[in-house]
Amino acid sequence: MLNFPRSLPKLLLGLCAGLIGLHAGAQTEWPKAKPVTLLVAFAPGASTDIVARSLTQKLSELTGGNFVVENKGGAGGNIASAQVKRAAPDGYTLLVHSVAFAVNPSLYADAGYDALKDFVPVALGPKTPNIFTVNTSVAVKTLPELVEAAKKSPFSYASSGIGTTTHLSMERLKSAAKVDIVHVPYQPAAAINAVVAGHTPMASTSMPPAVPMIKAGKLRALAVTSAMRSPLLPDVPSITEYGYKEFDDYTWFGFFAPAGTPPGVVEKLNAALNRAMESPEVLEKFALLGMSSTHNSTAEFSSFLRGEVPKWSAVVKSSGAKAD
Q: Shortest CA distance to 191 belongs to which of 133, 238, 108, 104?
């Protein structure tokens, strides 16, 4: 007859309980095992940060999970991109980035990631056209008048920084119009203020910082860089109305997961993000910022991204822009 230690039954019960606990933890459905971190590629207060923070509460309500924002600015967003690239592909770490995500691999000698291979495009967020504005003291009222004025005397413009689409949109205009306008890069929030203060006569920026100044009469809007006019400023012409037919430039925002994230989790994320962006309160907030969003699938966002990366690579190459 075998003699077992009296403590063996307790040990077995403890082992069984531990295994059951492990199994239960493994079966916890996304996103309830732990908080989901939205890693924002820029500092607090940036447009990308505002987009992320506008959605966290709705995402939590829709999924039953806990969504938190963490900012990791630096190197034009490359630091955050590299961190999410290395994160566990489990749906609990997401990258929230701007159009710079598509621009940086061609702008930097080594951005630290491949935009088309290292991430799963989860959902395209809101987007906003870029806009050309001038100080109200500048004696031009239309884009053609600006081009003619710049051909006759030196002109400069402020942008949201080297390699941003606000910089590259103006470089595209300069090339198409065969005109030289000197680039003066600023931090995003400072570019508009520089033009309002008269430090530079003109700006090429995204719409959110420009619209309040335009409506307050401190800036004059010349054109938006999208193919169609913006509903927020319906009286401001689209650049295509002036004959620049290849333009449809936006500052857009997107959500990305590390490559290898399970398709089921990606689909749940996509559905939750779309529903959050379609909620009335979020739509209203985006509209006030000059942003709009449309329902999109992961496949549609992936297709969009495959067009954006080479598009901006060609503009970076032709303009000679470099961030290093």
A: 133
